[in-house]
Automatic annotation (TrEMBL):
Organism in which the protein naturally occurs: Roseateles saccharophilus (Pseudomonas saccharophila)
Compositionally biased intervals (Basic residues): 16-29
Keywords: RNA-binding, Transcription, Transcription antitermination, Transcription regulation
Segments passing through the bilayer: none
Presence of keyword ATP-binding: no
Keyword match Ubl conjugation: no
Segments of this protein annotated with the region Disordered: 1-30
Protein name: Transcription antitermination protein NusB
PANTHER family, sorted: ANTITERMINATION NUSB DOMAIN-CONTAINING PROTEIN (PTHR11078:SF3), N UTILIZATION SUBSTANCE PROTEIN B-RELATED (PTHR11078)
């Protein structure tokens, strides 16, 4: 007698169902940088220790390490400048923002300021996606509005060309 054949499980993907696209190395870098910045904002811990801990996390090999390093160290080293940029577009002191939204806004402002190879709309969208994943219920709307206004200051020619 033959062994019974296995049947497809009810949780298997249905034919034609769309799968979420795999995360890019850059997206993973942003996610790891948000986590490191969040820790830094909450604890004030040495960024070297935070970075070392981040490098031990599962999935580190899948990051765009160069972008992760630029985001994490760049945001910490330029925190005062990034906060000055953001303070023109937020409705309260940056120190009163949720630490996760603050970290996401810092990354978005850093990318708008320094990563000109990334179109401004992509930088904003990536920050919005981070806010959807890590932030509060409507935090992504706040992040979108703040970075949209900051883009006018940081990338005026690019923004004007798109509008």
């Amino acid at each position: 007698m033959n062994a019974p054949q296995k049947t497809a499980s009810k949780t298997a993907a249905k034919p034609g169902a769309k799968r979420a696209p795999a995360k890019s190395a850059r997206r993973r870098s942003r996610e790891a940088a948000v986590q490191g910045l969040y820790q830094w904002l909450l604890t004030g811990e040495d960024i070297g220790a935070i970075n070392a801990l981040g490098r031990e996390q599962e999935g580190y090999a899948k990051l765009d390490v160069k972008h992760y390093d630029a985001l994490l160290s760049g945001c910490v080293n330029e925190a005062a400048d990034l906060d000055a940029i953001l303070s023109r577009h937020v409705d309260r002191k940056t120190t009163e923002l949720s630490p996760i939204e603050h970290a996401i806004l810092m990354i978005g402002a850093y990318e708008l300021k320094h990563c000109v190879d990334i179109p401004y709309r992509v930088a904003i969208n990536e920050a919005v996606e981070l806010a959807k994943s890590f932030g509060g219920t409507d935090g992504h709307k706040y992040v979108n509005g703040v970075l949209d206004r900051a883009a006018v200051d940081l990338r005026p020619v690019e923004v004007a060309a798109k509008r």
